[in-house]
Amino acid sequence: MGFGNGDFDRSAPVEVAADNLEIDENTGQAILTGNVVIEQGDLRLSADRVTVEYTTLDGEREIDRLNANGNVLITSGEDAAEGANAVYILATSEILMDGEVLVTQGPNVLAGDRMSIDLEAGAGTVTGRVRSTLQP
Question: CA dist 120 to 13, 40, 54, 81, 117, Å?
Answer without folding.
Answer: 16, 13, 21, 16, 9
